[in-house]
User: What shape does this take?
Amino acid sequence: MVYTGKDIKNIVSEIIEKKKNEGGLKSLYFVGCGGSLGALYPAKTFMEKEATCMRSAWINSNEFVHNTPNDFGKNSILLLACHKGNTPETIAAAKLGKEKGASVIILTWLEESEIIEFGDYIVKYTFDASPDHLAGDIDYAGEKTMCALYVAVEAVNQTEGYKNYDKFYEGAARITTIIRNAREQVKDRALAFAKEYKNDDMIYTMGSGAGYGAAYMESICIFMEMQWINSASIHTGEYFHGPFEVTDANRPFVIQVSEGSTRALDERCLKFLKKYAKRIEILDAKELGLSTIDATVIDYFNHSLFNNVYPIYNHALAEERKHPLTTRRYMWKVEY
Amino acid sequence: MVYTGKDIKNIVSEIIEKKKNEGGLKSLYFVGCGGSLGALYPAKTFMEKEATCMRSAWINSNEFVHNTPNDFGKNSILLLACHKGNTPETIAAAKLGKEKGASVIILTWLEESEIIEFGDYIVKYTFDASPDHLAGDIDYAGEKTMCALYVAVEAVNQTEGYKNYDKFYEGAARITTIIRNAREQVKDRALAFAKEYKNDDMIYTMGSGAGYGAAYMESICIFMEMQWINSASIHTGEYFHGPFEVTDANRPFVIQVSEGSTRALDERCLKFLKKYAKRIEILDAKELGLSTIDATVIDYFNHSLFNNVYPIYNHALAEERKHPLTTRRYMWKVEY
Assistant: This one.
C-alpha cells in the first residue's frame, strides 16, 4: 500500500494507537542524506518550537546508523526521505528502524524500490520531474517537505495538541498558488542573475528559521553538486559572528528574507550586505507573496517557497554556463 | 559568586532540587553565537545520543530570542556561552531566560561583564589567552566545550542516569595531556600546511559526530573571520550527497578523522579525497593520541582535541600570510 501526504493524519493516528500499550510515542527522528535531509529541516524546526514533550532530532543517515540515539526504538517514529529509494545509508537507517521496533515512515518518489520493504508506511510525495523542474504543475502541498511537516504537526497535535493546527492546513492549501505566482515573478530576475554570476566560482547562500533548509539545499545540491561552484550556507544569525569578514564588493550572496519570526535576522544581514557586498540576490518571501498565510504558522512555509523558486534561477544559470544540471563527475560514476 | 567547571555537578544538583516542586527539569537549551555556539556542539550531540527523556536543542542566540521554543521556561536550563559577556544577542537570550523563569547558566571568560546580571550561575572557563593561543599551559578540561558537556552529563546522570559517567570523567582527566602532546606533534606539519595553502582563497573543513563543531568553528572563526578565506564545513556523512562534486586536485580540504562511532564516515571521505583531491590536510584523532580514552565516551572528546590542535596551524598560516589572526575589517569597527 502506497500512501500520499493526505493519508498522514491517519498514519500517525494508527502509530499512536499501536504504541499506546508500549509506552506511547516519545520521539520523532528526521533522517536522510543531502537534499533529502535538507527537505526535512522545516519539520525539525517545527518540533523544536512547538512540541513540549516529544524528543526529536535531525540527523544524516550514516551518522544515525553509526551513532544511534539511545532512546531510538519502539517509542519512536523514524521519518526517512529517500527520493528513488536506493540511497544505501538511508536503506541502512530504515533496516535499523525495523530491527529496533520503531515505526518507519518513508517519504519517497518511487513506489517500487529497495527501501520500501523496510518501511511500515510508504508515502509517495509529489515531485516536479520535468526537465530542470520547470513545469510547475504539481501540487506543492504534497511535496516531501510538506509531508514531513504533516508528520510533525500530526504527532504534536494528536499527543499534546497544537493550537494553530487549522491555520497550518489553511496555509498548506495556499502554498501551491503562492509558489506558482512566485516562480512567474522571478523569471526575468533569474535570467539577469545567470548572466551576472555565470563566471563566479564561489556563491554563498543565507537564511534562517525553517527556511534555512532551503539555503542549505541550494548550496550543496545546486551550486556544489550540479554546477561545481564552491558554496556555503550561512545562517543569518551566525553571519555577524565570523562569516561576515569574508564580505566584499565582489563576492556573491543569495539571501533569503523569510516571512515570520526570524525576518529581523535576515533584514539585518541584508542591510549590511547592501552596504558592503553589492553583488547580492534577494529572495524576499513577503515580496514573493507568502504573507497571505497566517502569521502563527507562516514560518514553516518559507522553505517550500524558496526551494521552489530556486529552480527558475538554477535553470537559467545552467543554461548560461552551458553546464546542465544533470552533469556529474563522481556521483553514480565512480566508486565511493 | 563565580564558579568553574568543577562546580557544575553541584550547580546541576541545585537546579534539579529547585525544580522538583515545579515539575522537574525537562529541557536543556544550548545557545550562543558563532564560536560560542560551535563550542556547545559536543554537548548537543551528547543530549541527542544519551538522554532518553529530556528535550534539548542547539540554537543561535538571535534565532532563539526571535523564535523561542514553546516549552522554554521554568522547567528548562538555558546554557549560554559568551566569551567576554558583551554579545548583544546572547545577553538578550539571557534576559529572556530570566523572564521565563529558566535556570540560566552562563559560560564566560570574564568575571565582570554586562551579561552576568542575567545569569543564575556564572561559570568561568579556562582559556588560553596568550597570543594566537600558543602557550598551551591551561587546564583544557576546564574549557567552555568541556563545561557544556559537564552540564549535559550531569543533567542526564542526575535525572535518568548515565551508565558511562565514571568513564566520561576519566576521559576528562586525560584530555589536557593528550592535547598538549598533539599540539607538539603537529608543529612541523602546521608549518608545511601554511606554506602550501597560503595563497588559497577557499578551504573546506570536514568532520562528523561531536567533532563537527570544531570543523564549523575552524571554518567560520578562523578561515572566514580571521583570514578572510572563503570556507564551508562539510559533514562527512553529507559529503557524498552533493558537496563532493566540487572536489578536484586543486581544492584544499582539512579533514578531521574522529575516534569513536563516526570514524567510518570520515575514513570513507578520506579514501575518496586521497584519490581525487590530492591537497588534503588530515587531523586523525587516533594518530593524535585520543585513543587512551575509553571507547564508550571517546566521541565527546574529539572536538576538544581538534579545536586545540588548530591554533598551531592557524598561527603558522597567519604568519605565512602576514595576516595576523586579530585583523578585522568589520567586527567591532563598523555598525552592524
Summary: The two ends of chain A are 33 Å apart (CA to CA). The beta strands of chain A are 2-3, 27-32, 55-60, 76-82, 103-108, 121-124, 202-207, 230-235, 253-257, 280-284. The first strand of chain A starts at residue 2 and ends at 3.
